[in-house]
Amino acid sequence: MQAQISLSSTKSFELREALLIYRTDRDSERTGPSAFVTKHSVAVDPSGVPSLGAGSPIQEGDLLTLCAQLRSALPIEFLPSNVLVRSEDSITWWTPASMRRMFYAKEKNTEVAQLSGKKFPQPPLVFRAHKRHLEVRALLRNERPDLQTALYRAPYWNVNDCGDVCLGTARVPPQATVDSLPRWESAFFESEFTHPNSSKRLTEHPGGFVGLWRSLAEKRRFPAQFLVADNQTLHQFITS
Asked: Which residue range forms the structural domain that includes residue 201?
């Protein structure tokens, strides 16, 4: 059997080491680990045939080195107070209540199109971004959330039941870094909201989505009582 891997790189790679994984099928055995890994050096003879050297149990340092080599290292960044969680591939942050212009696709809905370009008060929000992907939730209180803070549905078009944002042709940053946060927010608010993307109600306002935003045009404060509970805490959100 032959396998080909495309690494999209001009670097030259050589086979140096191999990892062997040992497992047990005895699920009822609770006295120790159910798997272990050994590391082996690899020798390649002149004809190109590899052979394994003696193995040794893999150590924590080996795993950390391997992870650093397989994935780009997390850059050293100063984390401002709006950042809630930073990992190697994503960043989660919150934004206080604010005023933002909102834009709607004019051909989609006449009532909503009339609101396009106006300023609206926004609830405090929680965003999570990673490569070409953005999620958003709303907060009831205008304060930095903790792990047990309850989240609410973000009352916007283009956002599905899970809080995923349909970015469409929005120009988003290539990476999720501290410096890129304002650009992620701009990509969300300055692109057109084109369609409802949730099967659940987005607001408790008696006039529904259109009634909510029509009542808020050029107002100064978002009424928190119109947010819909999402039955999720910040801890559940960041670990999902």
From this structure: 83-239
> CA 17, CA 163: separation in Å to the nearest integer?
42
Q: Which residues pair with 150 in a beta bridge?
A: 233
Contact call for residues 158 and 170 (beta carbons, < 8 A): no
Of 185, 193, 168, the C-alpha closest to 113 is 193
Write out pLDDT tens, residues 99-113. Answer: 999 999 876 667 888
Q: How far apart are CA 129 and CA 157, in angstroms?
A: 18
Give bridge partners of residue 83 from the DSSP assignment.
93
Are 168 and 105 in contact, with CB atoms under 8 Å apart? no
* Tens of pLDDT, residues 121-151: 999 999 999 988 999 999 999 999 999 999 9
Q: How many structural domains compose the chain?
A: 2
What is the DSSP secondary-structure string of 31-53?
SS-SEEEEEEEEEE-TTS-EEEE
Quick check: is 219 in a domain? yes
The residue among 35 and 233 whose pLDDT is bigger is 233
Q: What is the pTM of this model?
A: 0.72
| Under 8 Å between Cβ of 158 and 134 | no
